[in-house]
Amino acid sequence: MAKFLCNYVNGKWVETGRTFANINPGNGSKVCDVSEADQDTVDQAVKGARAAIAGEWGRMSTVDRSALLHKVADRMKACFDDFLEAEIADTGKSYPLVTADEVGDPQDLDLWLHVNGDACRQATPGP
User: Fold this and answer.
1) Is 29 left (phi over 0), alpha (psi -120 to 50) or beta?
2) CA distance 127 to 60
3) pTM for this structure?
4) First to last CA, the chain
5) How far is CA 40 from CA 14, 43, 47, 77, 87, in A?
6) Which pLDDT tens digit goes with each residue over 50-108?
7) How far apart are CA 19 and CA 37, in angstroms?
8) Is-contact 53 110, C-beta < 8 A?
């Protein structure tokens, strides 16, 4: 598991200079250090999101957007055990509780994709 987490803003990992320790509430152990987002980092992220909507992402057809989200879900499925490990460390919950309350199982991504597909079909089509 990572020992240090940065903010991911506009396709880049961003360190702000301020960090905090992410502590497992179940056992008090330090999970990792996390770069604390400051106002400038948040502003950059908002600007980046707005630029994405005004740019390629916003111009992308709903079919292409859906295909891209399917690729994201496939990658998430491939790394599912890593997600579980991180969530267990972050929340201090046991495996059964994390799978029931937080992460679910890989098949939950299929439901997410189904809902995404419905949303894409109902959305105003792109070019």
Assistant:
1) beta
2) 7
3) 0.68
4) 41
5) 11, 5, 10, 33, 28
6) 999 999 988 998 888 888 888 888 888 888 888 888 888 888 888 888 777 666 666 67
7) 9
8) no
